[in-house]
Amino acid sequence: MKTDKLKMLFTPKAILLIEYLCLVCAICIPNGCVYFFITGDWRWFSDIASAMIIALPFVFLPPKWRVTSLIPIWGFVVFNITNLWYLRFANSMIPVPNYFLFGNFDTDLFRSGISMARPVDVVLVIPALLLTAAYLFKVFERGNSVRFNIKSKVVVSVVSIMVFVVSEVVTEAQYNDAWSIEDLTPIVAERYDTSKFRISNSAEYCIDGCVTYILRGAARPIIKRFKDKTLSEDELKIVEEYIDIHQRLVSQTPDSTERFSVNRDKNLIFIVVESLNAWSVAFEYGGHKLMPVLSELISGDGVISSVNVASQVHSGVSSDGQFIYNTGLYPASDATTISCYLDNDLPTLAKVLRPRPSFEVICEGESLWNHDESNRAYGYDRLVSETDNRTYREGIGRDEAMFKTAGEIIDTIAKPFYGMLITMSMHIPFTEDNVKMPQWISDIPNQTEVMKHYLTATNYFDQCLGRFLDSLKEKGLYDNTVIAIASDHTAPVDGSGYGAEYTDIVFAVLNSGMTLHSETPVGQVDVFPTLLQVMGRYNPQEYCGMGLSMLNPALKGSIDKYSRVRGDAISEQLDSMLRLSEQTSNLLLRADKCMMTGLR
Question: Which phi and psi (to 5°) does residue 10 adopt?
């Protein structure tokens, strides 16, 4: 009797409805969890609306094909859980086009993602697992005897679309009108910062909802190809205003032609350090210095240095840091720069320093993050990747392997040369098989394992740096080489994924011919003109990039990656320039205009 009653209660139509609702829930819950992580709040109406749109094709599928609904279900699970992991690391979401950069899917990416996983993340996967099990055990089989009729299809379609449209309108209104900055987390509050044109991926996700966010993100590279590059009159006024202010500030740069003329014939080595936080330089415990080599170097004579550099990366993170150092421009705000703007005629260090030979050494595959394309776009003569330095891997870490490979290239390359060396051992999760934790770091109390691994990787890099510099001295090359060292971005090692965005990063130029240990807040874009000046290639009267040389007394502040102005003693002119600089850079990228001339 009970079985008969259950069959009467769960009719084929009822089972079909339950199947549909399960699909909606399996999509809705992961979306909601990511939104909650970003904002600390729930928005079920918007998440249900997005789920209804995503599940809509189910209504039109023949019964035997309904199991294919698992494909988008698991697709959105992967999308949400990978973004959740990325948020914990970068405080941003993965740009949608990056999911199509298949060269990025390697062991490093996998290890980084797993290191950000938490037991609570299983909540995102459970609905999809239960739904998959239901299909495997044919729980919904009786529902396959029923099809949605035309009326049902129309009703479900109209209701889904109406709910989705209403949710979009309501969500947009909430963010624009009803919510004050104090009600939002710092990530979403970026929408209301000084540079309103720049909205983070995570803020867009919160404002647009999952469906609109994905559609917009996927469409951007396509739209970019067909978008008119011509700047409007209003946009031209912004560029002209910026250039006028920038030129007036640049004119205050002291004449350094005689001081740095000797550097024109020196080699230049630029070491970009993965995830180096500025506080690491001064860190010590129990009489042990974490970075004895770098801490001594940046406080020495003939060194220009700053531990007050604001990270200005956007969604591209490491690739953005490398882009800024190579070009002196801000990364794009509307897309990942290396995905959309590498075909531009970019002003770069390698091009300015021609005809000297140039090379780049990396600890990853050539295709990872479009590195093979960016290497060509930046004007390097050669890219040396992980494949080329793997022979050194036996018993040593990646940074030491990279430095050994660079040493071999330096032995054979014509002088003077320019080389960019990019480290990797300090990449999250900050662990390598051949890098062992020193006992003194293991003994540090009240520190998370993540922090101890970060300290270990940082200490290891410092040792590798010392050995590399010693090798240059042994070869008689050190004194004739300008060596720049800079962090690519900050590292979140506080355990929460938040807070690291306020951490400064490091920049130093060894053998510069001038001693300057700056305490002024500067930005990553200021590195490019500083290096041009040190290398004797800077014409202040004609240069028009995004930054100012650190030797310029007008440089009293910067903006951070959230477009917030830093510095207490900045002039009105500098404040205006900083507030216009990112937008101007984005306009120049879009128009493919190089505003830098006179690089001698």
Answer: -95, 75
Q: What is the pTM of this model?
A: 0.85
Q: Give me the residues of the chain with pLDDT under 50, please.
A: 1-6, 8, 178-197, 495-501, 597-600
Length of the chain: 600
For 29-60, the pLDDT digits (tens) are 998 888 888 777 787 888 899 999 999 999 99
Residue with tokens 């005689």: 258
Block residue for tokens 């950000």: 116
pLDDT (tens digit per residue) in 238-291: 999 999 999 999 999 888 888 899 999 999 999 999 999 999 999 999 999 999
- As a whole number of angstroms, the distance between CA 535 and CA 538 comes to 8
Question: 19-47 burial string, b = 16+ CB within 10 Å, else e?
Answer: bbebbbbbbbbbbbbbbebbbeeebeebb
CA distance linking residue 186 with residue 38, whole number of Å:
9
Q: What is the dihedral of CA 232, 237, 238, 242, to 10 degrees?
A: 140
Q: What is the dihedral of CA 189, 95, 347, 426, to 10 degrees?
A: 90
CA 566 from chain centre, in angstroms, equals 21
Least Cα distance to 501 among 73, 185, 234, 108 occurs for 185
